[in-house]
Design the sequence.
């Protein structure tokens, strides 16, 4: 068996002092964090102060009505329960397995037995959690293909993401709406040591200011009208994993103060509560706003801004990564065909050329939504230019459509994209480099490599691209 992972917490309830000390020593020796209690009703009150991965409770503590105590424990904490009992109580413990207990240990337990039973339960819990997560996220998981890249701008981003993923540092992601900021956050999480723990996302702009504190930190019963029971917040649910705060710039100042405290102290109090809850959560935030301007205008706390921007990533727009459009389009068509149970369609060369030439103000999200609409509306097996919305045809930016065809080489696609960008900017290398998401020197090197003229209207490329 593997050693206990970091931050795994076990709550132990055993009224017998000697037995409690023995089990606590075994658990601590295995690397678990242990909260030990002699029992009584206060034990249940302590269970909700922080999340636990498992609870070990003595049948002696359960008393004459163990089923009632079992229900009370399950209500107080969402964690598997392991019963601790004398050999003569084994039959009683087995009956309780049918009422919600996960397993039982016979007294006096030894190290091997505790380690084997506990780790097996926790491994099963992790597996079930991951299965539930991926069942709910399966369509989004396939969306990670949008991070595959041929364009220099996306390759640079992916390299930084892989360097950042193993770290514990907070990450601030910038990017326009629809570029895939949440997918970047998910990719960082799934490439980190926290991959087996939860990834929880919250859009700060979608939650009213009056409710966002409850969403983040949870609340106690009776904390406000409608609070009929204790509820865990996103920070508590994400314990051991990652919390993604989208549109962080929309968060109100009062909540900003409390988020800053969690980042610095790793603890918080539920709304209406008086006990601190400790958590281990990596925070990744995202915004399409300029936080520096918000700080200067007094709309965002400077201390929180600096705490978030330990690592900063910028996701390029789709117009900055045009080399990725054919790959993205084909991938989305396959994915959406499966999801909608329709026949897979293909994009004709001219249709792909129109997609390459469109400006995509809605970025990757707009591309995916357009293709889904086409899969539903187009009856033929091919999607042609006339099937595309008129605004896609109308946004040509001058000149004929690109002549790069699906199936051509990457070098040919890149050459054609650079040629058309230079044509649009009148040969302005600085502006062209910005549009392409590369440095000016890199652009100059590619111009020489592909033997491209600065002004395509005055000098035609020596090597023709198929279809030009």
Sequence:
């Amino acid at each position: 068996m593997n050693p206990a992972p970091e931050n795994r917490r076990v709550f132990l309830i055993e009224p017998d002092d000697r037995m409690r000390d023995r089990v606590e020593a075994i658990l601590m020796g295995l690397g678990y964090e242990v909260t030990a209690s002699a029992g009584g009703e206060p034990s249940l009150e302590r269970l909700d102060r922080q999340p636990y991965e498992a609870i070990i409770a003595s049948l002696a503590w359960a008393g004459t009505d163990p089923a009632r105590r079992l229900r009370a424990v399950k209500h107080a904490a969402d964690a598997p329960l392991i019963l601790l009992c004398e050999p003569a109580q084994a039959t009683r413990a087995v009956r309780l397995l049918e009422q919600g207990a996960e397993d039982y240990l016979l007294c006096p337990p030894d190290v091997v037995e505790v380690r084997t039973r506990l780790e097996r339960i926790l491994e099963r819990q992790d597996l079930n959690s991951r299965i539930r997560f991926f069942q709910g996220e399966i369509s989004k998981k396939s969306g990670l293909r949008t991070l595959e890249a041929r364009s220099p701008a996306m390759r640079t981003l992916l390299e930084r993401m892989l360097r950042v993923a193993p770290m514990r540092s907070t990450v601030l992601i910038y990017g326009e709406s629809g570029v895939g900021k949440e997918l970047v956050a998910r990719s960082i999480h799934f490439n980190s040591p926290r991959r087996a723990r939860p990834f929880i996302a919250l859009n700060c702009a979608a939650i009213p200011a009056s409710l966002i504190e409850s969403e983040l930190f949870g609340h106690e019963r009776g904390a406000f009208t409608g609070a009929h029971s204790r509820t865990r917040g996103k920070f508590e649910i994400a314990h051991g994993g990652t919390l993604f705060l989208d549109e962080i710039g929309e968060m109100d100042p009062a909540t900003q103060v409390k988020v800053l405290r969690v980042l610095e102290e790793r603890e918080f109090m539920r709304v209406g509560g008086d006990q601190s809850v400790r958590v281990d959560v990596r925070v990744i935030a995202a915004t399409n706003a300029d936080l520096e301007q918000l700080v200067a205008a007094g709309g965002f706390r400077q201390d929180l801004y600096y705490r978030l921007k330990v690592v900063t990533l910028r996701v390029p727009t789709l117009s900055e990564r045009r080399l990725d459009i054919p790959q993205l389009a084909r991938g989305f068509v396959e994915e959406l065909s499966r999801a909608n149970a329709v026949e897979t369609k293909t994009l004709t060369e001219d249709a792909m050329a129109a997609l390459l030439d469109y400006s995509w103000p809605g970025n990757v999200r707009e591309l995916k939504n357009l293709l889904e609409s086409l899969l539903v509306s187009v009856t033929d097996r091919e999607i042609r230019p006339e099937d595309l919305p008129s605004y896609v045809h109308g946004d040509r930016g001058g000149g004929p459509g690109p002549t790069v065809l699906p199936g051509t080489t990457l070098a040919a696609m890149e050459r054609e994209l650079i040629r058309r960008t230079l044509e649009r900017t009148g040969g302005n290398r600085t502006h062209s480099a910005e549009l392409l998401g590369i440095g000016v020197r890199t652009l100059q090197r590619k111009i020489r490599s592909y033997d491209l003229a600065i002004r395509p209207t005055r000098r035609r490329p020596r090597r023709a691209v198929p279809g030009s």
Observations:
- Residues 152-316 form a domain with the Rossmann fold fold (CATH 3.40.50.300).
- The chain has 20 helices and 14 strands.
